[in-house]
Amino acid sequence: MLFSRSSFFSFILPLFLVTLLSIARVDVVSTAPTKIGQGYSLISVEESPDGGIVGLLQVKQKNNVYGPDIPYLQLYVKHETENRLRVHITDAQKERWEVPYDLIPREKPAALKKAIAWSRKNQNSVLMASSEYESNELIFAFTTDPFSFAVKRKSDGQTLFNSSSDESDPYSPLVFKDQYLEISTKLPQDASLYGLGENTQPHGIKLYPGDPYTLFTTDVAAINLNTDLYGSHPVYMDLRNVNREAFAHAVLLLNSNGMDVFYAGTSLTYKVIGGVLDFYFFSGPTPLDVVDQYTSFIGRPAPMPYWAFGKFFKKKKKKTSESRVLQNCSPVHCSESIVQSAKSIITPDL
Ligand SMILES: *[C@@H]1O[C@H](CO)[C@@H](O)[C@H](O)[C@H]1NC(C)=O
Q1: Which residues form the Glycoside hydrolase family 31 N-terminal domain (predicted)?
Q2: Most buried of 105, 215, 232, 267, CB within 10 angstroms?
Q3: Does ligand 1 lie within 6 Å of residue 167's CB atom?
């Protein structure tokens, strides 16, 4: 009797606690604000000496949700190549953590004060009476109050990214706190999105509205679904059918902090817990072009010799495919292919 009662409690009590906790959790989620603040306004924008543009953003209405707002932000935009546009937003007064510049080599954003001084001297400040800044294929367009930006493609007239938030939208305009950054884009309903690695999803690499995409690098087994994995690639490719023609582009948010990305079908929202907003737009227009443009920026994978796959593939497995390959080929052929592969390691551009 005593025995069965205690086992009853040992079963029921945790169940009760779990239920209680999940109710409490739902409560916390439902009371959290869905919209934070009024965004920023763009109070100055000028051409920078390197051919980009720099702007100063000021917060519209301060609040303390997830910490105080950063009052002034620096905006830097540049068409870095014919098919790559960069949009960089950070604290205008203090340096913040970024993916190190020697790890992924790229230009430093133009310094705001220097650019303004240069622009005043060269009388370029009038330039920004217009609200578009374009290259051959991509156009950066912006609104000043509240500040929002859009990236448009010239050849098909599509808006690839649009950060404006209307009254009716369920997400905030730009939010920039020390430990909470939020920005969203509208998307057409029929866009197909792929990516946001590394994350396991039941549907594979195509993004599904409502699926959880958390990027927070942890070393967990990929057998678990809906989970974050070993590395982080906050990049997605967007494939659209425009008048029966396929157009692809990609959006990278170069930020190494933990983030949630919410894809809701007609919008996508980033919620990031630190760093800066450093966006790169790759214009494609084919998926292969996108991959080419992306890897020319972040670096191409080194070619691996076939015999080494087993060795580097899985750090925890003892039996390598190297040993299997060696078992399965004739000595002459093997020694040739190993020499070839060894050459390809030593010569990095092969
Ligand atoms: C961005 O969205 C806003 C609000 O829906 C819209 O008025 C504006 O035209 C869009 N911008 C572009 C470039 O598509």
Answers
A1: 82-257
A2: 215
A3: no
pLDDT digits (tens, 9 = 90+) for 221-276: 777 788 877 788 999 999 999 999 999 999 999 999 999 999 999 999 999 999 99
pTM over 0.70: yes
Digit-coded pLDDT (tens) for 138-180: 999 999 999 999 999 999 999 999 999 999 999 999 999 999 9
48, 54 contact by CB (below 8 A): yes
Q: Which atom of ligand 1 approaches the CA of 150 most closely?
A: 13
Residues paired with 194 in a beta bridge = 206, 237
- Kindly state the helix (H) or strand (E) to which residue 11 belongs, with its residue range: helix 2-31
Cα(150) to ligand 1 centroid in Å equals: 8
Percentage of the chain exceeding pLDDT 70: 74
Q: Which CATH number fits domain 40-298: 2.60.40.1760, 3.30.9.10, 3.30.420.40, 2.40.40.10?
A: 2.60.40.1760
Query: Whose C-alpha lies nearest to ligand 1, atom 3?
Result: 164
